[in-house]
User: Fold Biotin--[acetyl-CoA-carboxylase] ligase from Flagellimonas profundi.
Amino acid sequence: KHFQLLKLDATDSTNQYLKDLLRSENPLDYTVVVAEKQLNGRGQMGTVWYSESSKNLTFSVLRRFDALSVKHQFVLNIAISMAVYDVLEEFLVPNVKIKWPNDIMSGSKKVCGILIENVLKGERVGQSIIGIGLNVNQTDFENLDKASSLKRITGRNFDLDELLQKLLERIWLRLEAIESKTVTQLLPFYEKLLFRKDKPSTFTDGDGEMFMGYIRRVSSSGKLVIELEDRIFKEFDLKQV
Ligand code: BTN
Assistant:
């Protein structure tokens, strides 16, 4: 009821579709674009998002803001990853965790990727394009060590429309709450759900160097705080292994 749903058979990328729509028309707040198939699905940091046609969910949500400062934009990552987390828990997906900044894991496998692209207006976020790729009924994956789907994990088939409705409901609730909450208020809940928190883990930094450390927390600007060795902390703005 809160959403303007646009269903497409195929498009390059639902994020790109919404971006183009923002340029050419004036789409309503909470416009949602869902595609059966993406021809050029995009992931974080210029990667490609592959998703088998008609088996999974690939969709993007447009949200407009009046007063969200750029400094606080990490609330979006928190809100969206917690919304997906809520729904997967509700569907009894085991051991769901959030891998910073916003991958959703079940056990050690990634089942959902999120690509948030913000359109800035000076110091504020004007619009946010929130793209979600959830692996649902796909069973073949190129790298089974890293990626999986709800079906592979639970053995059940999922109804894509039902799942989308639940996700949109949760996303709506979490997004509505954003403007009244600060990052600092939300962080403790998000941190509790972090993948490999306080466990010895291996990371790769921007130069490809490997190092060992413990995820301890996330800063209010969204940086990952890793303890390298006894009481030596470093903030990272990079991708962990
Ligand atoms: C990642 O984990 O790297 C993020 C993946 C995001 C994929 C979704 S699918 C719907 C939306 N459209 C895109 O092109 N990408 C996002």
Remarks:
- DSSP finds five helices and eleven strands in the chain.
